[in-house]
Amino acid sequence: AGAWVVLDELNLAPSEVLEGINRLLDDNREIHIAETNTTVVPDPDFVVFATQNPAGGDYGGRKQLSRALRNRFTTMWIDSLSSDELRAILQHKCQLAPSIAAAMVKVYEDLRAHRNVDALLAGGGTDLITIRDILRWAHRKPGTMEECGLEGWCLLGERLRHEDQRSEVAKAIAKHCKTYGVTAASYLETNYREDPYVLEIQKSGGGSGLVWTETMCRMVALVGRCARNGESALLVGETGTGKTTVVQTVADFRRIKLEIVNCHQHTEPADFLGAMRPTAGKKDVRGLIKAKAKRMCDLVGRDVDEEQSVAIVREIVNEYELESDENSEDPPSPKRARVRSELRALWREIADLRADVNHDRSIDHDLFAWQDGPVTRAMRGDGHWVLLDEASLATDAVLERLNSVLEAGERSVMLAEKPGGEVVVGGDKFSLMMTMNPGGDFGKRELSPALRSRMTEIWVKALDYADENDDSEASRLIRKLLSDEAKSLMPSIRRAVA
What we know:
This protein is α/β, with parallel strands linked by helices. It is built from 22 helices and 13 strands. The strands form 5 sheets. The protein has a 5-stranded parallel sheet. It has a two-stranded parallel sheet with strand order 1-4. It has a two-stranded antiparallel sheet with strand order 2-3. The chain starts with a strand and ends with a helix.
């Protein structure tokens, strides 16, 4: 039976690629594959759908489709949700109290009435709030009006770069999320030093090398909220403001592996998701098997060489019951449980390598094999974090290949480049973070609204090194890094970097 296919962000693809499916969309309903000289006729139930953002404007990389292609589709313009529809979604899908849902919708209406001036000031975006923003706000499950106001401010206010816009958001939240004693000024002066997430990290001894300035506490509190709610964070700020360090600190505190990918103008989707790479020969694979077998022997205290270790692996598998999900020792000691877990991982890797060696068409016969990229690796299993550093240096078409990974709910990606295709779904601990410098500098630009709306954006303020106050954040940072003898040089250092 035929399937339905959705071509997302259609107008990001080159025109010559899109024109290749013209005959599939007209009355002929067939497609010719020149590389194999075959013609494919689809099933009667096969249907193609496509989505796209408007061409031009803030949506970088989008192109006008040719008339020949557009005429083959039935075009529909999708308007924004009405206030009544949005209120119903918040109450029934997000399970919010009617009063809280109504307050969120009123904030949404107020802010939609004020056009964002960031587009004129190289700040990107034309609206102070989007549908995705209010849904993200609702998914944080505020139980009281006070929580509703604070979470709304963290999401909507802390990403803005200009004080007049921050003030506008603070006034709207204070007006509709009415809480005794809380005004617009209360949100603008939020004290993140007392944030529970910051206090929890400090109490555990995490971030021991950090200087806990107000800016650092603010970033940790905001990124921590993103991590707690399964959101992808986009940190925007000048170089040297601690964006990468904050993500590393939160990942360390949560005991989650963090993989950092540095983006550049030649970054390709394969750098994130993986690609077909040249394979190693059987000799190299057998060497890997011996090395992993030797590691298993070392873990259980067997002093043998690599050649002997392969023969002993089966004894270790039986002794530690590695092929069984159960353990006869109830409960196992912490040390034995840790060793068994590592042994099981090594045994699975050995089994996979042996399967490759024994497979008729693998290793020596296939010159290339699929290798996962950092994002795909992070999504598998329980998952871990990936940080795309300097994300804005990569092109829109490359970054928006990750749109499905950033969607709320099931974060997945279709590996169309992999032979046979595969859908990879992110594990519970998986998260994709990004950092970037603000647009306007050489080579720096703003990300498209379509990508930014899928992430929780955080504006990171630069330190003011010109402030000569000894208690300023810049002074405290410099003082932390200097020895007692060198502290007399603080005024000179401040003037040099200001």
